[in-house]
Amino acid sequence: MMKIFVEKDYEAMSKKAAEIFIEAIKEKPNIILGLATGSTPIGLYKELIRAHKEEGLDFSKVTTFNLDEYIGLSPDHPSSYEYFMREELFNHINIPRENIHIPDGLAENIEEYCKKYEEMIDKAGGIDIQLLGVGENGHIAFNEPDESLSLGTTIVELTENTIEVNSRFFQSVEEVPRTAISMGIGSILKAKKIVLLANGKRKAPVIKKLLSTDRVSTKFPVSFLLLHPDVTVIVDEEAYNG
Ligand code: GLP
Questions:
Q1: Using CA atoms, how far apart are residues 142 and 125, in angstroms rounded to an integer?
Q2: Ligand 1 centre from 141 Cα, in Å?
Q3: What spacing in Å lies between the alpha carbon of 198 and ligand 1's midpoint?
Q4: What is the block-wise mean pLDDT of the chain (242 residues), using blocks of 10 residues?
Q5: Taking the model in full, what pTM does it have?
Q6: Domain 2-201+214-241 has CATH 3.40.50.1360
Q7: Residues 139, 142, 143, 144: what is their CA dihedral angle, to the nearest 10 degrees?
Q8: Is 156 left (phi over 0), alpha (psi -120 to 50) or beta?
Q9: What is the CA radius of gyration of the chain?
């Protein structure tokens, strides 16, 4: 079942999402969170940092697993997702380093590492709340539209569209890695609860399609969320109305 909240703007969307996460962390201090990168969740992360600093929201028992990472970028590369997460969230809250998991883009044997990452999530007890953004082409994490989609964490090839769209986080489009490690559609659907955020006009076509379809398609990966029993979609008016 998909619950949808339409909020006035980006700030209101971020606050609504933060309410859900803050409540959940208070209720279950050792919660397992699935986290996302991209422009969309930055406002939510700001709210979580605010709640930590002003209200003492405690992250000391929280565990996190990130959705994806570019292959070949070191954690200190300014465009890596690990760097992003440190800057936008982890450096500003009291989460222990050992509770943070982000796929290792420099792993020697990536295929083996992907299996290990999936096992680590299962061993931790599974994700309680998975945060998601959505790509303009309907990708979630880096599960790009394709003939088939991976169930578990895997190596993915990015589409030209995604490379182009994500080049804004790099010096040039040539610098964007062409492959990534990504949690699979199955890894995402195993989460107990999913929160999907989208804001801005660029996301309006994908949100419209998601909210009007009753079919799942590997060509539209976000549609697989229709199979999950507890999905909350939070969008701003621009993403809802176009
Ligand atoms: C990126 C990430 C996704 C993210 C999406 C949307 O490529 N791999 O996890 O949800 O694209 O990004 P943004 O929030 O910047 O629009």
A1: 23
A2: 7
A3: 10
A4: 95 98 98 97 98 98 98 96 98 98 97 98 97 96 96 96 93 96 98 98 98 96 98 98 90
A5: 0.97
A6: yes
A7: 60
A8: beta
A9: 17
